[in-house]
Design a protein that fits this description.
Shape: globular
Number of helices: 13
Order of helices and strands: HHHHHHHHHHHEEEEHHEEEE
Number of strands: 8
Structural class: mainly alpha
Helix content: 40-55%
Strand order of the largest sheet: 1-4
Strand content: 5-15%
Distance between the termini: 48 Å
Radius of gyration: 21 Å
Largest sheet: 2 strands, antiparallel
């Protein structure tokens, strides 16, 4: 439905834009305000918003959606937004609504029988309207950047792209166009906001369900980080249990069960089958993340799946929530940074209090199409 630059493109466009995006994210990670600074800043803003709940019951969906979206805004537009900024709220809702629609049963039917789309009314048309809104918003932002661009001092992702656009303007075959800038930023929002916020929301639900795990994580935070400084990425190597917990959340929730569709680039032999060039392939990440030989009792949430007998963090080749190979998620590094810093900062500052008995907490996903979405729930954030 939409021409995309990283997620759904291939060939030279995919290679050029992906390489540029990864390099630029690294460049932004080494600047005056690097990516970790941006995520730490947002983590503190998130904590301040949670303090405003005054320990009262709240649904964390909205606040946990704001934080990852703001990290993308800070990276792409230079500045984060206040959580009550109307433009920000509308932008976030459009992006989030599209992910919800893509996870609905109807969209799975359309994906399998695309010819139906032309004949059926429905929510797929909302996806196009939302995408058009976001695209128009981004074009306005790009126009503002063009007017204030300082080639010697790029501020954010859009500036880096506009500089690249100037450098390649003599090449008529260049993949660096304003249209491709818009769709690349759309990709960053689509892939980098709702996926991370859903994982955070699911993580808090699982921590409510397993208070023993929460207690161990908070003890590790107290021992390694303490109360006097904000968690940073250097802390992670000294926090094997917390690292294992976050890996186990991603393994257990199986966020994108069937990955994104891919196509074989040449005739491929696989287990005595010939897959012709161009065939669309749907891969099951579930079969790897829930492999019962690699992860005994995979249906049980247990950080021990990622710990050795001495309590040290244990890597697994079966851990691939971001997919694997050349098409692995370009934002994996940022997403992992956000999950660690947001969760540790929340648990450094709050006790999580459930409104129901832990045995009555249901962690079964309510939608399991494109993405596994957790059931709605409330909790109390009790300041420590």
């Amino acid at each position: 439905m939409l021409e995309q630059c990283i997620i759904f493109s291939n060939g030279n466009r995919w290679k050029e834009i992906r390489r540029f995006t990864l390099t630029t994210l690294r460049n932004l990670g080494m600047g005056k305000r690097n990516l970790e600074d941006r995520v730490q800043e947002e983590a503190q803003c998130l904590v301040e918003e949670l303090r405003k709940t005054n320990g009262s019951p709240c649904d964390p969906t909205f606040i946990l959606s704001c934080a990852p979206c703001n990290v993308i805004c800070s990276t792409v537009f230079q500045n984060r937004f206040d959580y009550k900024d109307q433009d920000f709220l509308i932008l976030m809702e459009k992006v989030n609504e599209n992910v919800r629609i893509l996870s609905s049963p109807w969209m799975q039917i359309y994906n399998n029988f695309p010819s139906l789309i032309d004949y059926c009314p429905g929510s797929h048309r909302t996806i196009l309207k939302n995408a058009d809104y976001v695209r128009s918003y981004l074009l306005e932002k790009i126009k503002e950047h063009q007017e204030s661009l300082n080639v010697a001092n790029p501020r954010d992702f859009i500036d880096y792209y506009l500089i690249k656009l100037k450098q390649t303007s003599h090449n008529q075959q260049s993949e660096f166009t304003l249209e491709n800038l818009t769709t690349t930023v759309l990709d960053l929002f689509g892939a980098g906001t709702e996926t991370t916020s859903t994982t955070l929301r699911y993580a808090l639900l699982l921590l409510l369900k397993h208070p023993d795990v929460t207690a161990k994580v908070q003890e590790e935070i107290h021992h390694v980080v303490g109360r006097n400084h904000s968690p940073c990425m250097q802390d992670r190597s000294h926090m094997p249990y917390t690292d294992a917990m976050i890996h186990e959340v991603q393994r257990f929730i199986n966020l994108i069960p069937t990955n994104l569709p891919h196509a074989v680039t040449c005739d491929t032999k696989f287990r005595n089958y010939i897959i012709p060039k161009g065939t669309t392939v749907i891969t099951s990440l579930t079969s790897v993340l829930h492999d019962n030989k690699e992860f005994p009792n995979p249906e049980i949430f247990d950080p021990g799946h990622f710990l050795d007998k001495n309590g040290n963090f244990k890597k697994s080749d079966y851990f691939m929530p971001f997919s694997t190979g050349k098409r692995i998620c370009a934002g994996e590094g940022l997403a992992r940074m956000e999950l660690f810093l947001f969760l540790t900062t929340i648990l450094q500052n709050f006790k999580l209090k459930s409104l129901v008995n832990t045995k009555d907490i249901d962690t079964t996903p309510v939608v399991n199409g494109f993405a596994s979405l957790p059931p709605q729930y409330q909790l109390c954030f009790i300041p420590i």
